[in-house]
């Protein structure tokens, strides 16, 4: 069984409206490890609309708060780097 990788739009995982997928390969073994959903125009438009909707609030967020959010993201990346490396390879 392989994992299904979906889109992440407006804070939620979504399969999108396209039925097209593409295999994801483990670069170390060549084995198929998942199927990624390929977006169509409607899916891309939904992602862009969600980003446009979120942008004003992010732009109004003080720079110090935005920096804290980005540093928290960096902290989470570092905290989970082994898991992420395993997922990538």
The strands making up the biggest β-sheet line up spatially as 1-5-4
Residues in β-strands, percent: 15-25%
Helix fraction, binned, reads 40-55%
Task: Give the topology string: H per helix, E per strand.
Answer: EEEEEHHH
Radius of gyration: 17 Å
End-to-end Cα distance, whole Å, is: 17 Å
- Provide a count of the helices: 3
Mean of residue pLDDT values: 92
| Coarse shape | flat
Largest sheet: 3 strands, mixed
Report the strand count.
5
Quickly give the structural class.
alpha+beta
Low-confidence stretches: none
Written account of the structure:
The chain has 89 residues and is of the alpha+beta class. It is built from 3 helices and 5 strands. A 3-stranded mixed sheet has the order 1-5-4, with no helix packed on it. It has a two-stranded antiparallel ribbon with strand order 2-3. The longest helix is centred in the middle third of the chain and has 20 residues. The mean pLDDT is 92.
What are the salient characteristics of this protein?
89 residues; alpha+beta; three-stranded mixed beta sheet; two-stranded antiparallel ribbon; flat
Brief summary of the model shown:
The chain is of the alpha+beta class. The protein contains 3 helices and 5 strands.
Task: Set out the fold topology.
Layout: E1 3-5, E2 7-9, E3 12-14, E4 21-25, E5 32-37, H1 41-60, H2 63-79, H3 81-88
Parallel strand pairs: 1-5
Antiparallel strand pairs: 2-3, 4-5
């Amino acid at each position: 069984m392989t994992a299904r990788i979906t889109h992440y739009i407006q804070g939620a995982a979504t399969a999108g409206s396209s039925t097209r997928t593409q295999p994801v390969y483990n670069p170390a073994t060549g084995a198929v490890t998942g199927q990624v959903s390929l977006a169509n125009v409607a899916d891309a438009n939904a992602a862009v609309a969600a980003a446009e909707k979120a942008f004003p609030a992010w732009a109004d967020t003080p720079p110090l708060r935005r920096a804290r959010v980005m540093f928290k993201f960096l902290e989470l990346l570092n905290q989970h780097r082994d898991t992420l490396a395993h997922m990538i390879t």
